Amino acid sequence: MHSTNTGGSSANTTEFSNRLFVYEVVGLRQNAETDKGSYPIRSSGSVFISVPYSRMNQEMRRITRLGGKILSIQPATGATGGVSGKAATIAEVKVPTLETKAPQMTATKEKEDIPVNLYKPNKPFIGKCIDNYELVGEGGIGTVRHITFDLSGGDLRYIEGQSIGIIPPGVDAKGKPQKLRLYSIASTRHGDNLDDKTVSLCVRQLEYKHPETGKTVYGVCSTYLCNMEVGADVKITGPVGKEMLLPDDENATIIMMATGTGIAPFRAYLWRMFKEQHQDYKFKGLAWLIFGIPKTANILYKEELEKLQADFGDHFRLTYAISREQQNSEGGRMYIQHRVAEHAEELWSLIQKPNTHTYICGLKGMEDGIDAALSAQAAKQEIKWSDYQRQMKKQHRWHVETY
Q1: Which listed residue (202, 221, 226, 361) is catalytic?
Q2: Is 335 labeled as catalytic in the residue annotation?
Q3: Which pTM was predicted?
């Protein structure tokens, strides 16, 4: 992620809040709606519409709805409404709307600050397992382990939101060495011990029925990791990934939606925000985690998450979607998309803030439901969600890592 604008919001508002701007517009249709307003309709060429800064977003949406296209925005002079000064493009005026390419308003990491591929498959880092414990409570489904590796003696650095590769021992069905598998890192850059010498993973043992034989099949790498003994060596590659990084803005709003082990990068975020209180990062914004799991016993890091909510309630919000224990409004199972629909109005309001970042991690199946809930809410303001989401992606404010 890269930003060329690190503090535009307050400065932009101060500069323009009391001024008028003139839109140069083409393509407005003559119809009943335009007859109600003061639009100087022409059959061809440009029309010019004076707009106060406070109504720029609303006016852009209305012009687009009427078939118009904004060619430029110019500052208007005094009472005459005339045009003066250099014509400004929409992007230069920095009004974050659906129709404009809004500037990214939060600072993010410079590319050179992001460690990538420090260790490759042909020369992996040899780490050592120093902790491996169960996260699923009694009565829960499956097994999920929190596994920590010692990184002493090497130069394996990483930041929150990245992944590392694990190369399991042995050979595959074709007799070739096993290929690496990627896992999201569940610890901050300083590690669980805050000594910059460890990295942690949140690993679910993959288990499924073979479609032809009906036999239970266990994932090669996940089983290797879940059964790993303390003291065992492990081949590690990476780190990799630039999609799920946190913004540097300590006042940002961070919305996180996770299923199962998709909690891994969000644990790293939350530990950095609230548990570490590190001298180089003092989070003062809002973090909201919506977490989907099948049973209460499957709430990974439950005690720690709920303690964060109790201690930092003004800055951290925790919402569960427990599918086999809770019901949605229609009487069916409660999945994460249903929670998003319940809170759609509030989420949509937050998402429109220029320093809000939204992260989705976990099962790919949740994406359609989340999009549907937010699409319905955006439509109430006559905004097409898919277009708005596309702009958010361009601004590096919409981050997805699903499987």
Answers
A1: 361
A2: no
A3: 0.73
